Structures are given as structure tokens and as C-alpha cells.
Amino acid sequence: MKYEVDLTQMCPATFAFHVIGGKWNLPILALLSEEGPIRYNELKRRLNGITGTTLTNCLKDLIDYGIIHREQYHEVPPRVEYSLTPSGQELVPLIEEIVAWGANNIHALGGQKV
Amino acid sequence: MKYEVDLTQMCPATFAFHVIGGKWNLPILALLSEEGPIRYNELKRRLNGITGTTLTNCLKDLIDYGIIHREQYHEVPPRVEYSLTPSGQELVPLIEEIVAWGANNIHALGGQKV
DNA sequence: ATACCTGGTATATAAAATATACTAATGGAG
DNA sequence: CTCCATTAGTATATTTTATATACCAGGTAT
Question: Which residues belong to any copy of the HTH hxlR-type domain (chains A, B) (predicted)?
């Protein structure tokens, strides 16, 4: 999501919603929190259905937000690892609570398709 | 977000990410948690920038997810109030933690535009 | 030589969000 | 009575976002 606004100027709630909102941000953060430093292609394989373009864009956004870190190793084939920054690590318990909420509430609905 | 899948069949984490992912779902839920039952047009006014079409779609999705409830009163002009279901109310503390995280981490980044 | 790996990018298409105009039923101002 | 405003949306067209597909360099394995 691109907004062309100065993040530090906006309301903290809006900032937080930008970081964890969006279709792929939360799945990416959940994987990073479980799998520690993880490479671009493995991230793509584990995030069922994401395309390379979208993954690249999301990772760039999260780096701009200060949530994840990109470490590039000069090897062949290339190796680039993504991991959580301290700010990102503070999100981990929240992500776990969100997943727990999902487990407790998924059975509350009927079998309709959405 | 439309997925054409049976929600009860999917992974709890994926379910949770569908509920709170998306551009507007979390802002909508935050408003509902703060303002109790709230009408369509006031919701639209308070969610700065959302359009009627998008708000309607988001509300329908959240109803399908079992997170919010729609109560229609047969008055003129029409009155329709939206509120959290018990499943939705269980999300309230998580939303508060997310906002608190935003307040603690927004100053970690420089003033770049994103 | 050929195929395959990596972390991407470029281009074109499909999907989602937006802007705009519009609706029915009523109440109030003039 | 007429005109305008209110409500909760819907219909249509346009713009923005996400996806599918092909492709790149620089190496390794067969």
C-alpha cells in the first residue's frame, strides 16, 4: 500500500494499521517470526499464492516501516535473508494472539463461501 | 477481499488474517469497538477517505465472517446500526495492543515518505 | 552445451478500490 | 405544495493495486 504520507506525522493507530493491514503483510510477518531469518524464495514458496512482484513490494514497504531487515550475502547463487527488527519482534506476541483468536473463533460461522 | 473458499475449512491463522487484513477492516473494527453500535453514515464520516461502495463491501464481508452484526430499524429516514458480535468483541483487546504497539514504534523510523 | 538455481525486474492483464451520480421514503422550511 | 435535506445504500465507469508471464545475470550440476 502506497500512501505518500510522512509516517511519523500520522496517528499511531493509522500507522499500526498500515503496517499490519494489507493482504500479505501479516502472513509475511508471521512467517518471519516463526522461521527466523528466511530467504526470498523460501518466503515465496511458503506464502501460498503470492507473486514475486507483490512479495518484493511488501518487503520494501516493511523495510521502510522499520519492521524488517534485509541482509545480503555476496555469494553465488545470491543469498538475501529477511528478519524482524526489534520493532518487528515486538509484534510477535500480538501475531500469536491474533492466530489464537482465529483458532477460537473460526467455528463460530456456518459453512458459507466468502 | 473475495476468496471463494469455505472459511471453516481453512487454517485458523489464514482465517484471522482474512478478518483483520485488508485496507479498511481494522479501522472499521477499531471504530466499532470504540463507538458501540454505530450507523452506516457516521461510520463513513469517521473513516476518513472510505467510499460508500467499499464500506458496504467491507461490512458485508465482516458480517459473513461473524465479526459484526447488522440491526435494521424500520424508521424514516432509515436507521441501520452495526456492532460487534461476541467473536468481534474478543478482538477488542488485540486491537488495543496493536494501537499501543503503533504508539511505541512510530518514532523508530525516519521521516521518509512511503 | 543445456538445464537449473538465485533474487529479483518489465510488461500486460485481472481484480479491487474509488469517484460520481443516482434511488425511495420521509420531514422540514418556505 | 414545492424544494431541499436526510437515510442506507446501488450502478456505472475509472483509477489503483495485484497477478501472471516472461525474462535477466552469474554461476553450478549433469
Answer: 11-110
Residues (48-107, chain B) with CB within 7 Å of strand D atoms: 52-53, 56, 59, 70, 77-80
Residue in B closest to A61 by C-alpha? B114
Q: Is A56 a domain residue?
A: yes
The domain of B42 spans 7-95
**Mean pLDDT over residues B61-83, rounded?**
94
Backbone angles phi, psi at A26, to 5 degrees: -65, -45
- DSSP H stretches of helix in chain B: 12-20, 25-35, 40-46, 52-64, 86-89, 92-105
pLDDT (tens digit, 9 = 90+) per residue, B2-38? 555 676 778 899 999 999 988 999 999 999 999 989 9
Provide the CATH number for the domain around residue B50.
Answer: 1.10.10.10
pLDDT at B108 over 90: no
Model confidence at B68: pLDDT above 90:
yes
List of B residues 76-105 with CB within 7 A of strand C: 76-77
Cα-to-chain-centroid distance, residue A98: 14
Q: Does A49 touch chain B (CB under 8 A)?
A: no
The torsion of the CA quartet B98, B3, A48, B19, rounded to 10 degrees, works out to 10
Residue of B4, B6, B7 to mutate for A, most A C-beta atoms under 10 A = B7
